[in-house]
From TrEMBL:
Organism the protein comes from: Salix udensis
Glucose/Sorbosone dehydrogenase domain mapped to chain residues: 209-365, 398-456
Coiled coil: none
Keywords assigned by UniProt, alphabetized: Signal
Pfam families, alphabetized: GSDH (PF07995)
Protein name (database record): Glucose/Sorbosone dehydrogenase domain-containing protein
Position of the signal peptide: 1-25
Origin superkingdom: Eukaryota
Length: 457
């Protein structure tokens, strides 16, 4: 599918959250259960397929609805829909946006699927609708109070008695992200034959790396990360795979080498590709210069400002690729799988000298000066007096935080933050407790893992 950009940017509102939800997240109920199929259909909150309510909860929700004693049909059906969103397969996202749990779910239309036939409904501003239909009507035991703890108002009250305007009401209950930034950033791959799940405007990408990125089953655009000071410095980073046969700048050391007890010439070719034909790359880009402030840029030059990392891959699979900035330390974390094949045949993941099967932690704010000089002589590494990247044993243009685990275990390559992973696919820092660094690591035969990542492990 030519012409589908690799990184796409657009503004989002409530409706887009709904679409991305189906495109990128898995459902979760408020109590962290997975949605399930009820034994029999519910009498009140009728959901087809998986949901978050059992029959007892359905009866409770019906009671809650009755206790509202709303007269108007239009308002009543909206409030029913609001109450029944407890049973929505994504109820966790509706009730836990931002920090604490909510008494009233975010007032988007929670039940519209990303199906194109229905997606026009997602454009409905549900909060506005609730206000328009309900503001005049008495609601008993109203949950729409100003008290976020959700103390109910016993006597009947109208929304107009509790809130001065629709705007004030929807500031509290409506919307989606609550962060006010209005933007979401997506890295995407061509949806080859898969049917679209995201409503994306492909005509105006933020950054188009179609020519650089090599796509295949496990190869492609892997991640994007914005510098913690992006608003000021415009720096952002893309992690992707490339094919050195198709793009000359895709060329780096092979992760299978004699140092690792691995001879690339002995590795099989996969789908006609030679070992280390494919690479994992982190490239730096800049949003400077296209608007007065980086955060206002709607498209940028696809010009690599600097290459951060380049490594040749032994096989075509298991090379993670996500990049994340640590919320507390500001370092760039880079997830890397064991390089592929079954059972990690070269034992890369446990090898302290290999970067395969690891999480790396890199400092991209302090790039050694001699490496910077090296940039300006474009590829000629011998004409500088300083050490080259290769002399330093690095895999790119970064420095190593002094407190990486190698400071306690000399056997470890300095980039390594944690080892022994198979394919750490998506990781996240807990927003409330940044020391909780969780990674989903893809299993081989029977188990998938969620790992708590700590320094050295
Ligand atoms: C329904 O779910 C609630 C909350 O998880 C639980 O306490 C209750 O026992 C369940 N009822 C039935 C009939 O499964
Ligand atoms: C329900 O509302 C109606 C008015 O719409 C009122 O007459 C009735 O007393 C209310 N019932 C309860 C139980 O509050
Ligand atoms: C979404 O909400 C609207 C009311 O705003 C309703 O008419 C529509 O049926 C809802 N869609 C679904 C799928 O429930
Ligand atoms: C979504 O769309 C597909 C194909 O258009 C259809 O088979 C499926 O039933 C739809 N799902 C829902 C819940 O409407
Ligand atoms: C709200 O109430 C006023 C009178 O109190 C009435 O004129 C108006 O039509 C009502 N609006 C709605 C949406 O019911
Ligand atoms: C509301 O009324 C119930 C009984 O009808 C009572 O138990 C409860 O304390 C009251 N709540 C408030 C906030 O007044
Ligand atoms: C981007 O511009 C800002 C000033 O607006 C400057 O401080 C920063 O160094 C620039 N960043 C890059 C990567 O050129
Ligand atoms: C893999 O490497 C680790 C660490 O060097 C070693 O303990 C282990 O025995 C090796 N496993 C295999 C199967 O070679
Ligand atoms: C270091 O940066 C230069 C300039 O961007 C680039 O040519 C080189 O490939 C980078 N080295 C690695 C190993 O990524």
């Amino acid at each position: 599918m030519d012409g589908i950009p690799s990184v796409i940017f657009f503004f989002f509102f409530c409706n887009i959250l709904l679409l991305t939800r189906y495109g990128s997240a898995y459902p979760l109920c408020t109590d962290s259960r997975s949605p399930f199929i009820p034994k029999s259909p519910h009498a009140f909150c009728q959901y087809s397929g998986r949901g978050c309510c059992n029959s007892t909860e359905d009866v409770e929700l019906r009671k809650q609805f009755k206790s509202l004693n709303v007269s108007g049909y239009g308002c009543a059906s909206l409030l029913k829909s609001t109450i029944c969103s407890r049973c929505d397969p994504f109820s966790a996202e509706l009730y836990r946006i931002g920090s604490g749990p909510r008494v009233v779910p975010v007032l988007c239309n929670s039940t519209v699927l990303a199906n194109s036939s229905q997606s026009h409904l997602a454009a409905t501003d549900f909060c506005s609708k609730v206000w328009d239909e309900c503001h005049n009507l008495s609601i008993s035991n109203s949950p729409f109070t100003k008290d976020k703890a959700g103390s109910v108002v016993n006597s009947s009250s109208r929304l107009t008695e509790l809130w001065e305007s629709k705007g004030a009401f929807c500031d509290e209950f409506g919307g989606a992200s609550g962060d006010g930034s209005g933007k979401i950033w997506l890295a995407t791959v061509p949806a080859e034959g898969s049917g679209e799940t995201l409503g994306i405007d492909v005509s105006n990408p933020f950054l188009d790396l179609t020519d650089e990125v090599y796509y295949d089953t496990e190869l492609g655009m892997m991640g994007i990360a914005f510098h913690p000071n992006f608003q000021q410095n415009g720096r952002f980073f893309a992690s992707f795979n490339c094919d050195k046969v198709k793009w000359p700048e895709c060329s780096g050391r092979c992760s299978c080498n004699s140092h690792m007890g691995c001879d690339p010439s002995k590795l099989p070719s996969e789908n006609g590709a030679q070992p280390c034909q494919y690479h994992s790359i982190i490239a730096e880009f800049s949003a400077n210069g296209t608007s007065s402030q980086p955060s206002q840029a709607t498209s940028v030059q696809p010009l690599e400002v600097r290459r951060i990392f380049t490594m040749g891959l032994p096989f075509a699979a298991h090379h993670g690729g996500q990049i994340l900035f640590g919320p507390e330390d500001g370092y760039l974390y880079f997830m890397m799988g064991d390089g592929g094949s079954i059972g990690d045949p070269y034992n890369f993941s446990q090898n302290k000298k290999s970067l395969l099967g690891k999480i790396m932690r890199l400092d991209i704010d302090n790039i050694p000066r001699e490496l910077q000089i090296e940039f300006s002589v474009s590829g000629s590494t011998s004409s500088t007096g300083g050490q080259t990247i290769t002399d330093r044993g690095l895999w790119g243009n970064y420095s190593v935080p002094g407190d990486n685990p190698f400071s306690e275990d000399e056997g470890l390559e300095p980039e390594i933050w944690a080892l022994g992973l198979r394919n750490p696919w998506r990781c996240t820092f807990d927003a409330d407790r940044p020391s909780y660094f969780l990674c989903a690591d893809v299993g081989q035969d029977e188990y998938e893992e969620v790992d708590l990542i700590t320094k050295g492990w």
